[in-house]
């Protein structure tokens, strides 16, 4: 009889757990039993592992083999356990020293000829191994650049099972990652100076970037809605290393990580098509759900162009992520959580015919109301800035027009962000948009004389309690942009005008 242990990582969303694989060789008919809640892909490992071991020149034990994956109550899915399973069996058969597997996490799928194939989610797996206190990790060689984003571990890359076995026996070396490069921000490809006119929309983009606010553009085709939205990430501050790792971990699970494996500090920009499914937008799928577009846009911008073309159920599915900054998906295999703290930017034409001017619109009132009703009132109430764009009347710029590029506007945004971060740092909030309304009113209340206009609109029902809180957040952002200490009545009026222009005039 023989007993050995190997280790791998089981993912549950972006969180990983250390999985201990016990391999036992006992009396009985030759065969392999796999226990510990494996899914279909993992249950098929018995055939992949046996063929890979034999085709790597090793002998497969003609014994009854039991492989137990613990914790037994944690659902295990995927093919990333293959290398660990193979090494556990060979260590139990004493073809490897069991002590060689101590403190070692093995990740990778095995081909029938013994090749180690890449798998999704390597980055969160390696992060989980570090949290669990493991010292060494072996990953597929094609995933070595991705794994090298995590420091504090000895990382090795393997192209074939025979390479792993020779390394464990001390007869060979495995590939090591190249020297890790510092995170960098790629040069901007699109600049705000390219936007013609639309000063109010440009100002709204600056306010949105400075405070982390959600934004809704309405205007005719060609007025610059998409241009401004795409340039918003250039105004946002760089991601910290921890935030960049969060973004990279989600993208690793979705198979959308950059091929060079570099860690980027540029906030992501995600723009799904209006034909997207609910699972692709919010997350989903069979078994344990996969991340959707809202999680891929974590710490960045989610842009919904032609928002009225999205199904109402898709748009209402965004309400919880907007409020809580995460997605919770319940499936038969359990509940997973994915981060989803993004800035929402929506754009739409004013009506189905998309006329440049209201006087040219041919849509009956009932058609326009039905068109606009696809975006529910509760969803609109969660958007801080509502901006109407006018059609362009000339491509020429006046000599007195302020030509501000992204770098100039970004400098003001970063200064405003620093003021907000310093103000809320003791409470753990990094931007005005993250501050809960009750806490904002209690900790740093705005003088009553500055909020009389909001009180009046609240009394007559033109402003909701949620809308009141969002106006106060925008007022704080406007105060930060001008370098003030406390929002004044002018800041509150400007915030209300950006939210409900017709109510403020």
From TrEMBL:
Pfam families: ChlI (PF13541), Mg_chelatase (PF01078), Mg_chelatase_C (PF13335). Residues 211-393 form the AAA+ ATPase domain. SMART domains: AAA (SM00382). Signal peptide: none annotated. Belongs to the Mg-chelatase subunits D/I family. ComM subfamily. This is YifB family Mg chelatase-like AAA ATPase. The lineage of its organism: Bacteria, Bacillati, Actinomycetota, Actinomycetes, Pseudonocardiales.
């Amino acid at each position: 009889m023989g007993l050995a242990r190997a280790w791998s990582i089981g993912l549950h969303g972006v969180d990983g757990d250390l999985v201990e694989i016990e391999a036992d060789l006992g009396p009985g008919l030759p065969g392999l039993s796999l226990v510990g809640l494996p899914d279909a892909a993992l249950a098929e490992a018995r055939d992949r592992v046996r063929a890979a071991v034999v085709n790597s020149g090793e002998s497969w034990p003609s014994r009854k083999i039991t492989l137990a994956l613990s914790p037994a109550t944690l659902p295990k899915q995927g093919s990333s356990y293959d290398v660990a399973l193979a090494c556990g069996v060979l260590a139990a058969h004493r073809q490897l020293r069991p002590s060689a597997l101590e403190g070692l996490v093995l990740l990778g799928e095995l081909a029938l000829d013994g090749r180690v194939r890449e798998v999704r989610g390597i980055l969160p797996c390696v992060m989980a191994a570090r949290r669990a206190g493991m010292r060494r990790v072996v990953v597929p060689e094609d995933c070595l650049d991705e794994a090298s984003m995590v420091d504090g571990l000895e990382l090795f890359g393997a192209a074939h099972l025979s390479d792993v076995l020779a390394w464990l026996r001390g007869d060979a070396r495995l590939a090591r990652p190249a020297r890790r490069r510092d995170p960098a921000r790629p040069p901007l490809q699109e600049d705000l100076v390219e936007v013609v006119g639309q000063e109010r929309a440009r100002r709204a983009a600056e306010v949105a970037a400075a405070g982390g606010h959600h934004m809704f553009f309405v205007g005719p085709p060609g007025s610059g809605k998409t241009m401004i939205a795409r340039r918003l990430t250039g105004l946002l501050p760089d991601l910290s290393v921890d935030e960049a790792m969060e973004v990279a971990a989600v993208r690793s699970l979705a198979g959308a990580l950059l091929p060079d494996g570099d860690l980027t500090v540029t906030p992501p920009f995600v723009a799904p098509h209006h034909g997207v499914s609910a699972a692709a937008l919010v997350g989903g799928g069979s078994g344990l759900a996969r991340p959707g577009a809202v999680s891929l846009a974590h710490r960045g911008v989610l842009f919904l162009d032609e928002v009225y073309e999205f199904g109402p159920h898709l748009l209402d599915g965004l309400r919880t992520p907007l409020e809580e900054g995460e997605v919770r998906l319940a499936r038969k295999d359990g509940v997973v959580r994915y981060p989803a703290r993004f800035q929402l930017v929506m754009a739409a034409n004013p009506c189905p015919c998309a006329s440049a001017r209201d006087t040219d619109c041919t849509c009956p009132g009932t058609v326009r109301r039905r068109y606009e009703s696809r975006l529910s009132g509760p969803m609109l109430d969660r958007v801080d800035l509502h901006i109407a764009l006018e059609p362009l009347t000339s491509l020429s710029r006046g000599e007195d027009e302020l030509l501000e590029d992204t770098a100039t506007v970004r400098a003001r945004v970063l200064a405003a962000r620093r003021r907000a971060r310093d103000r809320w740092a003791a409470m753990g909030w990094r931007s005005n948009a993250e501050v809960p309304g009750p806490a904002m009113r209690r900790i740093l209340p705005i003088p009553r004389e500055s909020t009389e206009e909001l009180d009046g609109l609240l009394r007559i029902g033109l402003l909701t309690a949620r809308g009141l809180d969002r106006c106060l957040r925008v007022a704080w952002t406007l105060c930060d942009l001008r370098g003030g200490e406390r929002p004044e009545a002018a800041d509150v009026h400007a915030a209300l005008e950006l939210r409900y222009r017709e109510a403020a005039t």
